[in-house]
Amino acid sequence: MAKVINGQSLPNIPWQEKTNTEDVIWRYDQNPIIRRNPAKGCARVYNSAVVPWNGEFIGVFRADHLNGVPGLHVGHSKDAINWEIDPTPISWVDDKGNACTPEYSYDPRLTKLEDDYIVAWCACHDGAVVGVGKTRDFVHFERLPDATLPYNRNGVPFPRRIGGKYYMLNRPSDDGHTPFGDIFLSESPDFVYWGHHKKVAGRIGQNWWECTKIGAGNVPIETDEGWLLFYHGVGNTCNGLIYSIGAMLLDLEDPSKVLYRTNNFILTPEMPYEVSGFVPNVCFPCSALVDADTGRIALYYGAADCGTALAFTTVDEIIDLLKNQ
Please, which of 5, 254, 269, 278 could form a disulfide with 305 given CB 3.0 to 4.6 Å? Predict the structure, then answer.
């Protein structure tokens, strides 16, 4: 039985028992949990990240504004299902207190790392880059130097140092919709200077569901078997791109090493809110809550670039699938 390590007891994790399916991951039957126009000025909220907070939950959410430009907003919830999204975007300042909010911001990841909550997201710096910042109260947000040069996306920090270094997954890309992409790993001594880049995983041509590009999803979950990561894989069809979800297990001490990886997708667009929307046929994972006591996982994913959906699984079921597929 796999065990969560470096995790916390989360008895109030959102949860719904599996019914009428043999799949290792199953959808919440009240999806999407965030629908269109959830707050003033916010047309769509999706591809977002949540964490436990003072016995409840808090998150950093991607909100596409009425002019189409995405920004980051704080959201609060008592149950991690029903969310109140702050209509005012996050205002970033640098270490001297100067305003430095980028032109656009999207697809955040969020983790508690030592004394801070770290946010990594796609920011604008003459093109898409991995922006990073921190907060302790979700009121004041300090922006750190960007972690990458243009063009890069899908920055996903690890929740602790490994061998004394900070690590972050990312995906080098281009200035467009990126018809390619593999997952890389970068390390830093101080969360400012990043280097020693390694390729973690690439596209698999014979797996059509992930043959175009892949990208890291949630902040990795530390288990005694390895770092559990959900990721998106993209296939190309005559009717456009399809974003599905897979999983992989990374070595605890060398997270550039993939121990196991799903051959098939574990979740793909099938429901109306995933198939039809602003960008159709998208399931895009960005965040996961885990209860260390039970191994329950609540996985948050963006649905068709219109709303936020929720799915459930357990550490045991996913790792058993990875090891015995």
Answer: 278
